[in-house]
Amino acid sequence: MRHPVFVFSCLAGALALSACSQTSTSEVNRAFRDVNVVDESNLNDIMLTVGDPNEAVVYFQRTLKDNPDRIDVRRGLAQSLIRAKRPTEAVIAWSKVVDHPDSNGEDKVDYADALIRDGQWDKADKVLDTIPPTHETYKRYRLEAMVADSNQEWKKADSFYETAVGLTTRPGGVFNNWGYSKLTRGDFAEAEKLFAQAIQHDSDLFTAKNNLILARGAQRNYTLPVIPMQQTERAQLLHTLGLTAVKQGDVEMGKTLLREAIETHPQHFEDAVRSLRALEA
């Protein structure tokens, strides 16, 4: 008579253990999923910063297949395509990001950036127009300034550049772009001032140094400014100044500057040598 009771007790215990096992497995799986989300988030950050851009593209494409609704993965793919210098594909990727229900204003800014990199200036202008005026970021106004430049809307460009400068702690690049805008308009004196400000904020910005030389040369000022420069940079700037002098019709001055560039360069300066030979021939 006791056996059935014993069997029933065993079955009940087995069922209880089974239930405990199922609960434990469920909790463990959930815990692993939580860990995987953290690990994946860290991996996403790594792929977007230090990873090879093309490898990052493959990673995000593969991740997106398993997580088609995750906007962070879509953003990662679009950003990786920009880093990999594949702007046409990036435009497509960013368009899908902005179509996502969780998209925000910064996504539209990045979409406009991709369009500009792909040469689609008119479309970038339209995208920027859809961003609310309350979305005030450095990148937004820098792009607005560039688009205004492309449309030769000079007053708007100046206003946007000024706003962008006030929204960043590293305005060197903005001052350089603004200066180049003035250079293309023929306002060489103002361009010179802006390039000098760019160098003041970023003494390693060689593009601004070279542009400064162009602005000075356009005013027939053939002396190097007092700015931080390495010996190789000095030679390259003298080369630029020499070519600018030749373009202005001051050929003898150009030859003198090219000779100085060749003497200044710590190694053989082939470009300057070739330019001087062409002039002397």
Write a concise synopsis of the structure shown.
With 281 residues, this protein is mainly α.
Report the top-level CATH class of the domain at 40-117: Mainly Alpha
Please, what is the CATH homologous superfamily of the domain at 40-117? Answer: Tetratricopeptide repeat domain
Task: Characterize the largest beta sheet: strand count, sense, and whether it forms a barrel.
Answer: none
The CA-CA distance between the termini, in Å, is: 121 Å
Instruction: Give the name of the CATH architecture of the domain at 40-117.
Output: Alpha Horseshoe
Order of helices and strands: HHHHHHHHHHHHHH
Overall pLDDT metric? 88
Name the beta content range.
Answer: under 5%
Radius of gyration: 30 Å
Number of DSSP-assigned strands: 0
Categorize the overall geometry.
Answer: elongated
Please tell me about this protein's structure.
The protein has 281 residues and is an all-alpha fold. Among the domains are: 40-117, Tetratricopeptide repeat domain (Serine Threonine Protein Phosphatase 5, Tetratricopeptide repeat), CATH 1.25.40; 230-281. Helix content is 77%, strand content 0%. It is built from 14 helices and no strands. It has helices at 2-49, 53-66, 71-83, 87-98, 105-117, 121-129, 138-150, 154-165, 172-185, 188-201, 206-218, 231-247, 251-264, 270-280. Helix 5 (105-117) packs antiparallel against helix 6, helix 6 (121-129) packs across helix 7 (138-150) and helix 9 runs parallel beside helix 11 (206-218). The longest helix is centred in the N-terminal third of the chain and has 48 residues, at 2-49. The protein is elongated. Keywords: Signal, TPR repeat. This is Lipoprotein. It holds the Pfam family TPR_19.
